[in-house]
Design brief:
This protein is an alpha/beta fold. Helix content is 44%, strand content 15%. The protein has helices at 4-11, 20-26, 49-60, 91-108, 122-125, 130-136, 143-146, 150-156, 162-165, 167-182, 194-208, 245-253, 260-267, 272-278, 287-302, 304-318, 336-341, 345-351, 358-366, and strands at residues 16-17, 32-38, 64-70, 117-120, 184-190, 213-217, 230-231, 234-235, 331-334, 343-344, 370-372, 375-376, 383-384, 393-398, 402-408.
C-alpha cells in the first residue's frame, strides 16, 4: 500500500509540515494522528471536509485517527481566522453540538474495534486546576513567541481577549494529553492552526523529550474567490435537516469547471488516474466529471441511497423534463388555510427561502426567472392558492436550477 503521505501530496492536501521526511518515514508503520473539531454549531459544514477526508485516508492506510471534539476549547473560542470574538456558548449548547458532530463523523470513519477514536477534550480541560495548569504548562510558553503567531497578530488589530489568548495553551495541552494517553504523534488541521500545532509539538518535546509532528492543509476557496462551503444561502452543512442531500448534491454539481479536478482529488476516494481521465476534457464534456463529483461527495456524507435519490432528482429536473417531483427535493410546508386564502408569488418565493428578500423575489419574477408548476410567473403579485396544487404539491422554480416543492400541512 502507498504511504499515505504520498497520497496527501498527490491529492493536494499538504500546505505545511514540521518535517516532511520524518513524517513520511513515520507513516511507513501504524501511527495515531488527530484532528480537532470545535463544537460551535450542531453540524459541521463543507469547510470541515478537508480534515475529515484526511482522517479517512489515514484510516484506509492502516493508521488510527482520533477525532477530537472540542467540547472544552469551544468554551474558550479559537481566535484563528476570526476578526472578532466568537459568541460565548453555554456548556449545554456545546455538549448538544458535540453530540451532533459525533454522529456526522461516524458516517466517514469506522469507530468499531478501536479502529478510530472519538474523544472530547471537555473530559480533561473542564477539570483542570488553573494554578497547577499555569505552573506546569503555562511556564513553557513565551508570550513574545505567542504574539508572533499569525492568528494572534491579526486579532491584536481588532482586540484579543485574555480568554482567547489561552487557546494556544489549551490546544497544545490537548496534543500532549493525546500523546501521553494514546501515543498520538501527528496533529493535522487547517493552515490557520499552524501556530497551535507547533506549540503542541514543542510542549511534547519539553515535557516528554520526544518528537511529535504537524501537517496543515490549504485554506480552500473556489476559483470565484468564495470561501469553501459558502453559498448565497450561507453554509453548506453536513447535517441533512440543515442542508438536504439534494441541495448538497446540487452544491457539488454546480462547482466551477476550474475546481472540478481539485475537488475530485480532495473530496472523493476515486483513484487519481480516474480523476485525470474524467478531467481530460473541457466545456460541456466536463459535465460527467461534475456528476461523479456530486455523487461521490454526497455518498460519503449521506450514503449511497440518498446520493442516488439526489442524482435521480437532478436528472429528472434538468435532463428529461420536470416530471413528478421526487421525494429528495427540498420542501417547504404551508398550512392549508393559508394557501386557501392565497399568497402573492413574490411573498411565497421569499417565505420558502428561494429568495432572501421580497425585493429579490420581485426582481426574479420581473426578469422572467420564476416558475410555478413549469409555467412562468407573469406578474410579481400573481396569487398562488390551493388551485395550483398538483399531485399534492406546488413546484416552484427560481432560475434554471433551483427547485422547491411546497407541501400543505
Amino acid at each position: 500500500m502507498d504511504n499515505v503521505f504520498d497520497v496527501f501530496e498527490e491529492r493536494g492536501f499538504i500546505e505545511q509540515t514540521t518535517d516532511a521526511a520524518r513524517i513520511r518515514e513515520r507513516l511507513d508503520r501504524p501511527t495515531t494522528c488527530y484532528v480537532g473539531f470545535d463544537s460551535t454549531a450542531r453540524s459541521l459544514h463543507v469547510g470541515h471536509l478537508l480534515p475529515i477526508m484526511s482522517l479517512l485516508h489515514m484510516q484506509r492506510a492502516g493508521h488510527r485517527p482520533i477525532a477530537l471534539i472540542g467540547g472544552g476549547t469551544t468554551l474558550v473560542g479559537d481566535p484563528s481566522g476570526k476578526t472578532e470574538a466568537r459568541p460565548v456558548l453555554s456548556r449545554e449548547e456545546v455538549d448538544a453540538n458535540a453530540a451532533g458532530i459525533k454522529q456526522q463523523l461516524s458516517r466517514f470513519l469506522d469507530f468499531g474495534n478501536g479502529k478510530a477514536l472519538m474523544l472530547n477534550n471537555a473530559d480533561w480541560l473542564t477539570r483542570l486546576n488553573y494554578i497547577e495548569f499555569l505552573r506546569d504548562i503555562g511556564r513553557h510558553f513565551s508570550v513574545n513567541r505567542m504574539l508572533t503567531a499569525e492568528s494572534y497578530k491579526q486579532r491584536l488589530e481588532t482586540g484579543l481577549s485574555f480568554i482567547e489568548f489561552n487557546y494556544m495553551l489549551l490546544q497544545a495541552y490537548d496534543f500532549w494529553r493525546l500523546f501521553v494517553d494514546h501515543d498520538c504523534l501527528i496533529q493535522m488541521g487547517g493552515n490557520d492552526q499552524w501556530g497551535n500545532i507547533l506549540a503542541g509539538a514543542d510542549l511534547i518535546r519539553r515535557l516528554e523529550g520526544a518528537d511529535a509532528y504537524g501537517i496543515t492543509f490549504p485554506l480552500l476557496t473556489t476559483s470565484s474567490g468564495i470561501k469553501m462551503g459558502k453559498t448565497h444561502k450561507g453554509a453548506v452543512w453536513l447535517e441533512a435537516d440543515l442542508t438536504s442531500p439534494y441541495d448538497y448534491y446540487q452544491y457539488w454539481i454546480n462547482q466551477d469547471d476550474r475546481d472540478v479536478r481539485k475537488f475530485l482529488a480532495l473530496f472523493t476516494l476515486l483513484p487519481m488516474g480516474e480523476v485525470e481521465r474524467l478531467c481530460a476534457v473541457e466545456g460541456a464534456e466536463l459535465r460527467q466529471a461534475k456528476d461523479v463529483l456530486a455523487f461521490e461527495a454526497t455518498s460519503l456524507c449521506h450514503g449511497r441511497k440518498e446520493a442516488e435519490k439526489a442524482m435521480d432528482a437532478s436528472r429528472r429536473l434538468f435532463g428529461s423534463g420536470e416530471g413528478s417531483s421526487p421525494d429528495s427535493m427540498p420542501t417547504y410546508r404551508m398550512s392549508s388555510a393559508e394557501m386557501r386564502e392565497g399568497i402573492p408569488a413574490y411573498i411565497l418565493f421569499e417565505k420558502s427561502g428561494l429568495r432572501k428578500t421580497r425585493a429579490e423575489a420581485r426582481r426574479l419574477i420581473a426578469q422572467g426567472g420564476a416558475y410555478i408548476n413549469g409555467e412562468k410567473i407573469s406578474v410579481y403579485d400573481q396569487v398562488v392558492s390551493t388551485d395550483d396544487v398538483v399531485e399534492g404539491h406546488i413546484l416552484l422554480r427560481a432560475g434554471k436550477k433551483k427547485y422547491l416543492k411546497v407541501l400543505l400541512a
